[in-house]
């Protein structure tokens, strides 16, 4: 049983679209707090009932796709967005050390998994008391 308040879905697997095409960050490079490239945004995990992006699915590491792993980065880490990049307030090493996300093996991660992601980055889970959805950037 999934004990997370809502099931998160990859945007591409839903009927939803991004209202403004320019705000679709999939495919953009992720830049860490030091200005280093961390990976790229492969997907957006959304909370369909709330119509909010909760996580960026980031492909990190590897060479020519070999050894690349997927990690989730809470949208809370995003500091700004431009036409080609998503900037986050964490370092490349912290992202690379995040809990591995494999949508093929864990299509519906449970609350402990998501909680572990939030703990790793030091953010309050979106279902926690007092959580406020980031005001910027707008997804």
Automatic annotation (TrEMBL):
GO terms for biological process: photosynthesis, light reaction. Residues 21-94 form the PRC-barrel domain. InterPro entries: Bac_photo_RC_H_C, PRC-brl_dom, PRC_barrel-like_sf. Pfam families: PRC. It comes from the Bacteria. It comes from Glycomyces algeriensis. This is PRC-barrel domain-containing protein. GO terms for cellular component: plasma membrane light-harvesting complex. SUPFAM superfamilies: PRC-barrel domain.
């Amino acid at each position: 049983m999934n004990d997370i308040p809502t099931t998160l879905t990859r945007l591409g697997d839903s009927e939803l679209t991004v209202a403004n095409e320019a705000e679709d960050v999939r495919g953009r490079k992720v830049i860490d707090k030091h200005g280093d490239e961390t990976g790229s945004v492969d997907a957006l995990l959304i909370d369909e009932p709330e119509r909010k992006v909760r996580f960026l699915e980031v492909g990190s590491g590897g060479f020519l796709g070999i050894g690349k792993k997927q990690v989730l980065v809470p949208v809370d880490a995003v500091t700004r967005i431009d036409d080609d990049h998503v900037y986050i307030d964490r370092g490349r090493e912290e992202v690379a050390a995040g809990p591995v996300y494999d949508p093929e093996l864990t299509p519906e991660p449970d609350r402990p998994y998501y909680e572990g992601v939030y703990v790793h980055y030091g953010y309050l889970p979106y279902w926690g008391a007092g959580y406020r959805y980031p005001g910027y950037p707008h997804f």
